[in-house]
Amino acid sequence: MSYNTFGHMFRVTTWGESHGPAIGCVVDGCPPRLALSEQDIQPFLDRRRPGQSSFTTQRREPDMVRICSGVFEGMTTGTPISLIIENTDQRSRDYGEIAQTFRPGHADLAYQSKYGIRDYRGGGRSSARETAMRVAAGAVARRVLGDGVRIRGALVQIGQHEIGRNRWNWDEVGQNPFFAPDPEIVPVWEEYLGAIRKAGSSVGAVIEVVAEGVPSGLGAPIYGKLDADLAGALMSINAVKAVEIGDGFATAAYTGPENADAMHMHDGQVMFESNHAGGILGGISTGQPIVARFAVKPTSSMLIPVPSVSLAGEDVQVVTKGRHDPCVGIRAVPVGEAMMACVLADHLLRHRGQVGDF
Amino acid sequence: MSYNTFGHMFRVTTWGESHGPAIGCVVDGCPPRLALSEQDIQPFLDRRRPGQSSFTTQRREPDMVRICSGVFEGMTTGTPISLIIENTDQRSRDYGEIAQTFRPGHADLAYQSKYGIRDYRGGGRSSARETAMRVAAGAVARRVLGDGVRIRGALVQIGQHEIGRNRWNWDEVGQNPFFAPDPEIVPVWEEYLGAIRKAGSSVGAVIEVVAEGVPSGLGAPIYGKLDADLAGALMSINAVKAVEIGDGFATAAYTGPENADAMHMHDGQVMFESNHAGGILGGISTGQPIVARFAVKPTSSMLIPVPSVSLAGEDVQVVTKGRHDPCVGIRAVPVGEAMMACVLADHLLRHRGQVGDF
Amino acid sequence: MSYNTFGHMFRVTTWGESHGPAIGCVVDGCPPRLALSEQDIQPFLDRRRPGQSSFTTQRREPDMVRICSGVFEGMTTGTPISLIIENTDQRSRDYGEIAQTFRPGHADLAYQSKYGIRDYRGGGRSSARETAMRVAAGAVARRVLGDGVRIRGALVQIGQHEIGRNRWNWDEVGQNPFFAPDPEIVPVWEEYLGAIRKAGSSVGAVIEVVAEGVPSGLGAPIYGKLDADLAGALMSINAVKAVEIGDGFATAAYTGPENADAMHMHDGQVMFESNHAGGILGGISTGQPIVARFAVKPTSSMLIPVPSVSLAGEDVQVVTKGRHDPCVGIRAVPVGEAMMACVLADHLLRHRGQVGDF
Amino acid sequence: MSYNTFGHMFRVTTWGESHGPAIGCVVDGCPPRLALSEQDIQPFLDRRRPGQSSFTTQRREPDMVRICSGVFEGMTTGTPISLIIENTDQRSRDYGEIAQTFRPGHADLAYQSKYGIRDYRGGGRSSARETAMRVAAGAVARRVLGDGVRIRGALVQIGQHEIGRNRWNWDEVGQNPFFAPDPEIVPVWEEYLGAIRKAGSSVGAVIEVVAEGVPSGLGAPIYGKLDADLAGALMSINAVKAVEIGDGFATAAYTGPENADAMHMHDGQVMFESNHAGGILGGISTGQPIVARFAVKPTSSMLIPVPSVSLAGEDVQVVTKGRHDPCVGIRAVPVGEAMMACVLADHLLRHRGQVGDF
What is the pLDDT of residue D324? Predict the structure, then answer.
């Protein structure tokens, strides 16, 4: 089966292959009368775009998005918004070899096994190129959420090198090629990742995404819990192997008192004294910041050979030439933000429909 | 919004509150002509049932399931299967106090914020009692999957005490009250959890679920990836804060060669030399065992007081009396298995419809 | 496949067989804080209940509905509402013969062909008994719509005998066993239907349902148009073969000017001068009354023999003994109202979520 | 709300406005390894294309479809198929007036009421131009169904002029500009429609669509019945006001024996002696031809003035200049076929997934 839509009321359907003529998405369910133009979307695509440093793939594409429907005189109309990016730098000659072999860690074998056919050029549908449309849809989702909701992501770990949590500074995120919130980690990562790249190797990473200003009450228990939908959305990103909300796996080692987020009243408002829960209880937002983290495995495309098998059923050594990110997790930062935005926009509309106003 | 259905072709809708007259579920989309009776479901419910050791809540209910539709002369008919469990031991007097205060870590405040009303008795809809119906539905899902697919879960961590991975023995899981696969950890956990219980505290845990015999090709890219659906399903379980597939968060620290699951041919079959990916690539099963882990936070109900607020907007100290599991993660083992079974059954039917036979 | 849920935000899942232990439904997505008790639902079930005149089946069941979840202290909580009716008068001896033969016009052959198994007792899942749960769900939907929306149905044709449209009086509908809005047609139908019944035959009917007070703006273009959803919902009722909105098939013979619903302003409001469109344009409600009509074929169960085939593949003559409505269309009136209510409640919540307040 | 997707396993999402830059659709869930190219789709678009006779709008567009994803080396891959048609002949100057007034019978007022904004150019999203993408998707659906299923449509009534049923000849349908299966009606319609056009008026029509070779067992009771899904799909076509299956409304006047489709065995097969049911019983296909009819109201765009209101709240007379079909029902024939194809393809995949092979 193929299933390329997510969301209930804010629904995003993506299409397109890495080396096909174009990629695109349809955003259905966006409320009307929101100001929207290509200029609202393009900056987010630019943040994700490859080729901006030596640490991301050298594939160079302008990734210019075009709005083909759903916007009239600069405003959304409530009809589906079609977003399209033409593929311009396809260079399919780089990928000819992978037609005959299955790259370990990639979807090659799985797609072949499932469909009996695959567009092997650049990974086809399973390429991370698809995430460009997530980012585009996320930009629309931000308009739905409005200025009161702020969604930001940062890279917090590359390999075994973690940021210093006590040095976290959101303003730093845009100042380095890693989306790092800690300036002291930047030279460490530069040196480490430079060595990884020279060795033709790759490495994993952890991304954290935080949404502030999210009103309490979002979430659709039991099987559309906000954290469950977030977990599914983040896990659907290419190469992601783990997701946690709030303190996540660490809570397994906590006792009850260590885990409890105590509350008190302050000026007539409920104030939390900690946020181990990551802003979600019972699948519903509490008004605290929503905090999610996810792990991205090392880029499977490497110059270091790995034993594998061929379409013809022979043992082979696979070396993946071409242009690849040594740490695909870096560019996953804007993608994670986009998924957070889409899930929140969807839940905002669901909540408003069934329970009341935002 | 409320959303109480999961699955696309194998769809489960649950209903019921902890202290309402009954709880139940409707399993829609089960194929016809499968042998099914209450005896196929009851053993799984019995494994999850409370009151079986001093480490789980002393609430005692037989949890006898009744099939009310969809089965004729011992066989499924292809029509919806209604499963109902009457609530017999409701003792609502235990829970009277929580009507006026919000228990930290529980869904109380979130439900009140969202709906403006809540059935506070025993947590109402947000109670882990709902998971009984997940287990019942999971038993039906196992019939759909057939005997070739084996799904097993185990507890691998309580607090900071982890099992010895090199001592893993599935046969031990049924021999102790913890679903522990390692006999040497049992006395450690007994002593630790006994102290936690006496202190009126609680603690978190980690569960691992493994599905063997799953055919390759299950998964619906891009937004119904098998791992994404699993992540959402497991995160939707009460008190779960984190999910990982295969090596999960550990992959962030791996290099590409460390993470790669090399392959070779053996007797005409593709053999993997490791399973860091947990049996899923590109959102599609590879034929290897599907491996998922999830963290359950400490039980929020404790005898140790926590600062909180009341419905009336006053600062209070909350102590949750009544019968509670000191480690709710223990009983999450059969629930995790059930969610794995439901997700796989759904994807099996989706795959068969669109791509071909099982 | 089996698919027993309808609606997007106001979702109804029904289950149960004619002669199983019980039938029921789960209403998910009902907003919180609506007053609801069995007394709000029972009167609608009583209107549909068989055995109330010689023109409906003599099966006598109290059809007492029980709310098993989703309501707390007389108010909806926003969690799923489980409604159950125990089957009390099953008398399966009446139906023993149909196990071996396929009754023409019934679903017997189709279910056997699809599923390879069927609960033949009283038609099993395909029995019109399922419509009791539609009526129950419809009663909940009316609470969602509120008192400002009035939904009423009437029988307008039995066989070739149509009501006099110029004599339409809603107050008459409750005064006769036919839900007839025209008192002059009542003796005509009584005599006609008495003869049909004595002959062991049956006859078809047409029902009209009108919803007044529906706000403009409901409808989800393009594939959730209000009229499309209504058509699907009404066609899903047992034995329905045709649906029309507004003037329906008659518009095929109209010219443009005859069909146009002219408008003018009156006290700052748009006033329509006619309602050929039945209150829906472009799939969206206009504020005019929503008008739908549907045709119910003759009851397929008759004492008059019809050539058919047996499970064993032999030619047989089928006579359906037992208790049957000579005109099943009569009891379809409250069912049609219920489907209208459910569709409107669903669209009200969808509209409110995405576009604004009611 | 906006909802622009239909189908469960074979899912079609359309987008685009009449005078936007392009229109398109995404077909998700198409099985892999089906031969597909633009040449398989274009002929169906050509049948629907305007400007082919004096009886359809003179808007002239080549309507060249482009496959942008989901096909590799001439075969479907199982990934979403994106189909796009650029709008070339937009001539928006024709439609400037309708920005300020609401055309009776059109969606203008309803969209304005719902969304508070509308793309008025050519009807925007509510234009019948959207149906081009239905036809394109229908061509893909035909590949899913294979050559064993034949779907054909015909025009059977214009105004009060019906075809002679006893003269029905499918071969005639392609021989005249009306899709008429009766050559004797052609001159009647030509003369009648010519007069309608000269008068600046319009007229309604009835279309019949028949699917032969459909296997028994398709349909998803209770809320995905084949006839219910067909009714919803056909009613969703622009200007459709009524749908019937088999003998439809006529069955209301039948007695049971008149309506019964008797069966007998012939060479080990069940043979039906009539098809009043239109090939569907209990919502499931029986193996007989599926027969559906739908009514299209007169084109609302006319040169004859109709009283209406303006955006500014004033009484006006609306005359719709520009290029319009005097009988929009003619071009609805290929659209009705396409909807039948899509619904059947969806149900084929659903059936195969849950119950067994085709």
Answer: 77
Considering only CA atoms, give the Rg of chain D.
21
- For chain C, residues with pLDDT lower than 50 are 357-358
> Kind of pairing, strands C75-76 and C81-86?
unpaired
Tens of pLDDT, residue by residue over C319-340, are 987 767 899 999 999 999 999 9
Query: Which DSSP state fits C31?
Result: P
- What does the buried/exposed string (b/e) look like for B166-186 if buried means 16 or more CB atoms within 10 Å of the residue's CB? eeeeeebbeebbbbbbbeebb
pLDDT at residue A172 tops 80: yes
**Which candidate from A221, A232, A281 shows the least CB-CB separation from B105?**
A281
Q: How far apart are CA C323 and CA C299, in angstroms?
A: 11
Residue A113 has pLDDT above 60, yes or no: yes
Cα D180 from Cα D162, distance rounded (Å): 10
Quick one: pLDDT at residue A358? 41
Cβ–Cβ < 8 Å for A265, B313: yes
Q: Which pLDDT belongs to residue D355?
A: 81
DSSP string, D280-311: EETTEE-SSPEEEEEEEPPPS--SS-EEEEBT
**Mean pLDDT within B52-75:** 83
Which chains neighbour A (Cβ–Cβ under 8 Å, 3 or more pairs)?
B, C, D
**pTM score of the predicted model:** 0.96
> So what's the pLDDT on residue C57?
66
SS (H, E, C) A121-142: HHHHHHCHHHHHHHHHHHHHHH
Burial class (CB in 10 A: 0-12, 13-18, 19+), B344: buried
* CB-based burial label for D135 (10 Å; 0-12, 13-18, 19+): buried
Encoded amino acid at C140, one letter: V
Residue C88: predicted pLDDT: 84
For residue C38, the distance in angstroms to the closest alpha carbon of chain B comes to 14
The distance of C352 to chain B (nearest Cα, Å) reads 12
Q: Are A107 and B284 inside 8 Å of each other by CB?
A: yes
CB contact under 8 A, B22 and C82: yes
Distinct helix (H) and strand (E) counts, chain D: 7, 18
Contact A79 C221 (CB under 8 A): yes
Q: Cα dist. A157→A196, A205, A297, A299, B249 in Å?
A: 15, 5, 12, 15, 11
Average confidence score pLDDT of chain B: 93
- The single-letter code of the amino acid at C39 is Q
Global ipTM: 0.96
Q: Which of B346, B348, B354 to mutate to test the interface with D (most CBs of D within 10 A)?
A: B354
SS (H, E, C) A33-75: CCECCHHHHHHHHHHHCCCCCCCCCCCCCCCCEEECCCEECCE
CA B25 to chain C, closest CA, distance in angstroms equals: 9
B55: pLDDT confidence band, cut at 50, 70 and 90? confident
Can you give the pLDDT at residue D53? 73
| Option in C20, C33, C66 nearest B68 (CB) | C20
A-chain residue closest to D5, CA distance: A28
From B31, which residue of chain D is nearest by alpha-carbon distance? D354
Question: At C243, which helix (H) or strand (E)?
Answer: strand C240-245
CB contact under 8 A, B31 and D354: yes
Amino acid at C350: R
**Distance from D107 to chain B by nearest Cα, in Å?**
30
pLDDT in tens, A54-86: 776 656 668 899 999 999 999 999 999 999 999
Which residue from A9, A78, A355 is facing C31, i.e. has the nearest CB? A355
- Confirm whether residue A300 is marked as ligand binding: yes
Please, are residues A75 and B251 in contact by the beta-carbon 8 Å criterion?
no
Q: Is D69 annotated as a binding residue?
A: no
Q: Does A35 show up as a binding residue in the annotation?
A: no
Whether omega for the bond prior to residue D185 falls within 30 degrees of 0, making it cis, is no
